[in-house]
Amino acid sequence: MSMGRLPSFLHPISHANAVDSSFISAQFVHSSDLGSCHALWWPPHNDDKHPDILVLFIPGNPGVVDFYIPFLSLLHQNHGTSNLAIVARGHLDHYFGIKNVGKTRYQDDHSLQVQVQSSMEVLESIVKSYTKKTKIIVIGHSVGAWITMQMLQARSDAITAAFLLFPAISNIADTPNGRLFSANEPIFSPTVRRILSSVTFLTVYLPEYAFTTLYSAWPKEQLRVLRDFLSSPTSVLAALSMAYQEMKYIRDLDLDLLEQHKPKLYFYYAQKDDWIGEERQRVFHAMNAEEQSLNMLLAPKGIPHAFCISHGELVAQQCQEWLQQLLKSVK
């Protein structure tokens, strides 16, 4: 297929993935002092027309959108009944290939909020670039779902729907994994974070068989993304700082926000997810929904929170079904 053209708000950069040519690697340059973030662009199938649906994807943590390439490529490739385009926005400083030297850093007191600000700038650029005929769907994974909720609160008029995949939107510190990490809170202290981030680059010296043994279920291309991430002290520090912010500041479930935007919200949960725990039932209750209802679904057994590593196909199929429903409802 044709590589298509980048929208005006994205600028091309080189990318290590020479196999999948369905997307273009790019960067988004902020109008504020935030520097640049990594982005991937899947062009509309008919590049001479504006997309009828544009998906803005917000990742979890670490916010390296390369982890989601198989999932997003499947979503784009198999959604053949509309002129679909996809922008995947990576979190600031999580991508090893972009260094915001001399720009605002992700200090301990604002690293999470700055990711919301960055996502909002991308959304505003999309709104300015396309007519109202282009429906904007925001898909957020894990803490990216929480960021998506903040975007919906600020610009619900611009967002047709929000797909929240394995959403970590409240009380992250009180989930099984959150309690585990909170019990070892020194790991997130500024000093320990900097020490950890400064030594993870040593993993590049590990032989390949050591990585494949440790992560035997991971596809080869995902192992490459992981090694690239760990080789960048800046990326590891940004991810650890953001994780600390998530557990400290993402607390009570925003019931008013759920109620206000209920028609636009679509939830997809794992049957067992230690980053969500009992919060899932609280969301179901708040939405007055039964499991396996139209907008509230449980994934098949065995699909993990980190679905993007090797379980993207079924999740992509569900997102495609939701997109089809939306297309029918807006025609």
From TrEMBL:
GO terms for molecular function: lipase activity. One of its GO terms (biological process) is lipid storage. It is found in: Lipid droplet. One of its GO terms (cellular component) is lipid droplet. This is Lipid droplet-associated hydrolase. Belongs to the AB hydrolase superfamily. LDAH family. PANTHER family: LIPASE, LIPID DROPLET-ASSOCIATED HYDROLASE. SUPFAM superfamilies: alpha/beta-Hydrolases. Keywords: Hydrolase, Lipid droplet.
